[in-house]
Please model this.
Amino acid sequence: MSVNLKPLGSRVVVEPIEEEEVTAGGIVLPETAKEKPQKGKVLSVGPGDRDESGKRIPLDVNVGDTVLFAKYAGTEVKVEGKKLLILRESDILAIIESK
Model:
């Protein structure tokens, strides 16, 4: 998905990955019982903050990375009918690497 949001500073735009709606036992979970997603795919990254001399500090995450983030981190926005999160890089806990 191409997103028309360019985050500023050390912010990133993440598309949350929703967990399964059915438990292992076959129980369908309603919207109100679902956990807030903590995993997502990075769609866009900002240029990074500046250090004391004015040089950009590059971000550790890249577009396409799958990341874990704090449960209530960021600002939720809706773009083209999709829920997206704008997070600071510091709210990202880990990058999930594929084997």
